[in-house]
Amino acid sequence: QVQLVESGGGLVQPGGSLRLSCAASGFTFSSYTMRWYRQAPGKERELVAVISSAGGIRNYGDSVKGRFTISRDNTKNTVFLQMNSLKPDDTAVYLCNTRLNGLDYWGQGTQVTVSS
């Protein structure tokens, strides 16, 4: 079955960096667009970044443009989110997502906390 497992979250000071990973299995990873979302307490789930199946097209939410970079390694079935210049407003659970045959699949999420 489809599995998405995020890792790499943690506590970081403002201005710091983190690199999130999402390991995928159960489907042909290299054929599908992958997304990172985030969910902060009391806020709607927000699309952070999208990467096409071959990695040639990448899009970002306005709040993270210029600071975050999405990438993927199709040989390792993994998608990454490099987060730089982190701000307290980036605090959230970060979730990996893909859509297969019209169905959304989610990982369990990884917590990112930006605080001094």
Structural summary, described in words:
The protein has about 120 residues and is an all-beta fold. It is built from no helices and eleven strands. Strands 2, 4, 5, 6, 9, 10 and 11 form a seven-stranded mixed sheet that branches. Strands 1-3-8-7 form a four-stranded antiparallel sheet, with no helix packed on it. A hairpin with a 6-residue loop joins strand 5 and strand 6. It is globular and about 40 Å long. The N and C termini lie far apart (about 40 Å). The mean pLDDT is about 95.
Radius of gyration: 13 Å
The shape, in one word, is globular
Number of strands: 11
Helix content: under 10%
Number of discrete helical segments: 0
What does the largest sheet look like?
Answer: 7 strands, mixed
Mean pLDDT: 97
Low-confidence stretches: none
Q: H/E element string?
A: EEEEEEEEEEE
The helix/strand class is mainly beta
Question: Secondary structure elements and their pairing?
Answer:
Elements: E1 3-7, E2 10-12, E3 18-25, E4 34-39, E5 46-51, E6 58-60, E7 68-73, E8 78-83, E9 92-100, E10 103-106, E11 110-114
Parallel strand pairs: 2-11
Antiparallel strand pairs: 1-3, 3-8, 4-5, 4-9, 5-6, 7-8, 9-10, 9-11
